[in-house]
């Protein structure tokens, strides 16, 4: 491994990691990357080049949308041949959505794209942002003996763990261990040494060719099943004008109430060309619609399995597939295939 041949582009979108407390109001406000470097002088100790790109103005992650994902892809593509790795500073609230979307939009990625952030602003004494940023840069710059990236995929680094981006979800708004990858092992653990889980990492492509995608269709919705859910609630969602896909969050291994009206509504939606994808509300585990009658009825209605997908991954994957103009049948088939390591089939 020769880190001296590395070069990193640090992309600051916004988020808590780049905020500082206003001494007069106590409110958190964005500040510049120059100040970020002032608060983390250790950045200058890296033996490789670190360049920066800053969103102006910085964005709260609540405002992140598909247009921002396209912008990030454009930045990475424009700089792909100039840097060996990329670190994106991002607010935590929608970080898993962005990581999932980028994993599909950056087809053929052969370099590290690591998203990180913090729960406490960088200017706060006990901030977790400093360690998250420094370790993310170190991992993004890690190369093997042949000069290839050790982590050639989109990932999230938080609280000593590197996780596959499209397998990760935010699970805590209070503690530093804000993210978890429930259905897939971590890609690396950072302690005294950084230990890589080479078996789980995407393999390096000998003939790399990045194929960026920009087409996304956001005409999707999430329908969460709950006890007592009423027909008019389901109908109002399924009848949204222009809606093309629905992520159906069900119980356990993919079960839903055996209501005649629910099955009829879902069946009619599927027959009309809508793509309905079944994922579990549970943090861990997978949808198995053949396991119980309450799940099998959904399968018969035309609902497809999302397997062990996170909500963030299922939503962005559906946007991605619908954006490319595929027929509903092709989208259903593709939702059941792992495109970027996002599901276990």
Task: Describe, in short, the structure shown.
By secondary structure, the protein is α/β, with parallel strands linked by helices. It has helices at 33-39, 66-79, 95-105, 129-140, 231-238, 260-271, 293-301, 311-323, 328-335; strands at residues 7-12, 19-21, 28-30, 49-54, 85-89, 106-107, 112-116, 154-158, 161-164, 169-170, 179-180, 188-190, 194-196, 211-212, 220-224, 245-250, 275-280, 304-305.
Structure keywords:
345 residues; alpha/beta; Rossmann fold; globular
Question: How does this model look, in words?
Answer:
The chain has helices at about 35-40, 65-80, 95-105, 130-140, 230-240, 260-270, 295-300, 310-325, 330-335, and strands at about 5-10, 20, 30, 50-55, 85-90, 105, 110-115, 155-160, 160-165, 170, 180, 190, 195, 210, 220-225, 245-250, 275-280, 305. It is α/β, with parallel strands linked by helices and about 350 residues long. It has 2 domains: about 5-210, L-asparaginase, N-terminal domain (Rossmann fold, 3-Layer(aba) Sandwich), CATH 3.40.50.1170; about 220-335, Rossmann fold, CATH 3.40.50. The mean pLDDT is about 90.
């Amino acid at each position: 491994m020769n880190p001296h041949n590395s070069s990193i582009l640090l992309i600051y979108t916004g988020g808590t990691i780049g905020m500082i407390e206003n001494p007069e109001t106590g409110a958190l406000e964005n500040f510049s990357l120059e100040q970020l470097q002032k608060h983390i002088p250790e950045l200058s100790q890296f033996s490789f080049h670190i360049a920066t790109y800053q969103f102006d103005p910085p964005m709260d992650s609540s405002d992140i949308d598909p247009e921002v994902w396209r912008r990030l892809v454009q930045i990475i593509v424009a700089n792909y041949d100039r840097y060996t790795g990329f670190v994106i500073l991002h607010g935590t609230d929608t970080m898993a959505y962005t990581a999932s979307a980028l994993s599909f939009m950056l087809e053929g990625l052969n370099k590290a794209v690591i998203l990180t952030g913090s729960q406490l602003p960088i200017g706060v004494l006990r901030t977790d942002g400093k360690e998250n940023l420094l370790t993310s840069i170190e991992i993004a710059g890690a190369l093997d003996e042949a000069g290839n990236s050790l982590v050639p995929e989109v990932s999230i680094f938080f609280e000593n763990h590197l996780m596959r981006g499209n397998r990760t979800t935010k699970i805590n708004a209070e503690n530093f261990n804000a993210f978890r990858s429930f259905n897939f092992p971590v890609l690396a653990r950072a302690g005294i040494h950084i230990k890589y889980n080479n078996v789980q990492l995407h393999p390096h492509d000998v003939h790399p060719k990045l194929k960026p995608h920009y087409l996304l269709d956001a005409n999707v919705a999430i329908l969460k099943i709950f006890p007592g859910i009423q027909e008019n609630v389901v109908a109002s969602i399924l009848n949204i004008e222009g809606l093309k896909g629905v992520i159906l969050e069900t119980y356990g291994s993919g079960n839903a109430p055996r209501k005649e009206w629910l099955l009829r509504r879902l069946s009619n939606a599927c027959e009309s060309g809508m793509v309905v994808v079944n994922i579990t509300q549970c943090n861990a585990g997978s949808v198995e619609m053949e396991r119980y009658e309450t799940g099998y009825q959904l399968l018969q209605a035309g609902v497809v399995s999302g397997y062990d997908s996170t909500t963030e991954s299922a939503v962005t994957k559906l946007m991605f597939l619908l954006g490319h103009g595929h027929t509903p049948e092709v989208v259903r088939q593709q939702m059941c295939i792992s495109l970027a390591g996002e599901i276990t089939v």
